[in-house]
Amino acid sequence: MANSGLLSKKQRLVLSAAGCILALVVIVLADTAFSSFSRRIFNLCGIYIILALSLNLVNGFTGLFSLGHAGFMAIGAYTSALLTMSPAQKEMNFFLAPITPVLANIELPFLPALFAAGLVSALVGFVIGYPVLRLRDDYLAIATLGFSEIVRVVLTNMQSVTNGALGLKGLPKYASTYTIWALAVLTIIFMFALIRSGYGRGLKAVRDNEIAAQAMGINIARVKIVSFTLSSFIAGIGGALLGHLMNTIDPKMFTFSLTYNIVLIVVLGGNGSITGSVLAAIAVTVAMEVLRFLDGPLNLLVVRTQGLPGLRMVVFSVLLLLVVIYRQQGLMGKREFSWDGLLKKFSIKARK
Which domain covers residue 75, as residue numbers? Predict the structure, then answer.
């Protein structure tokens, strides 16, 4: 231990290696020992980590208020589904109207299709972001929310491409535990590398003060559009993984409530904190399943109900309201996990 009370570089590397091994053990145990239901919740945690980080890139690190993530997820999910389904599966799904001939016989491996899902979402994000990012604050939120709703309506009405309101069923089961968590870890590493780079410092400068950032020579418009496009790419990847995990997709999956769940995670974890998004994604995903009993009949001795669908989301809405009022910085604020910070915290508690 150094005289300053901080860990040496070697000690940090040893602890980080031990943490990675522990995480790998947890993933292996989850894939082999968990029930199918528990494993699905575990995998949803990984997907929500990816989605929360994609939204935090825009909302937390760039200072833009976007509510259109469900739209980018939908684009990614449908792109990957249409590229990975076999011609026979497509023929079974499209019985009301035949699928467009261009897509009928296309079948790609999962990884190229997943990358294509991210690229298509990024392309749409660039096209939408170029004019929309001229708006600010509430106006930007309303515009992106409108875009998300437009995507859902378009998916519902493009019968020969998306199968309309019926959606797509029987998607290949490519979203395994290892695939999802490998991509979640890669997203975390990418976010840390991006935020600690010179470009990441430019993002934070735009977030904190656009006038000062522009005076320093930062191209505000380019920073915003690149951030929005990268966020759309990651959201498309997350949407594709969600579709392949559920093995079915339809337009009703990608309503505003899905975006609300991601916003809840980002706000609870802390705008501008990668660690906060990871912790909050796991906590909120697990809590959503643990509290599912609230939607059914309740017997609370004094009060009995026959079932109140949506009560679970009321609880989360109240939680979000309390966080906004009493702890606006969220769980981690803008802080990140570090071994030195953990050591200091335990040292302070020990002295007390």
Answer: 10-254
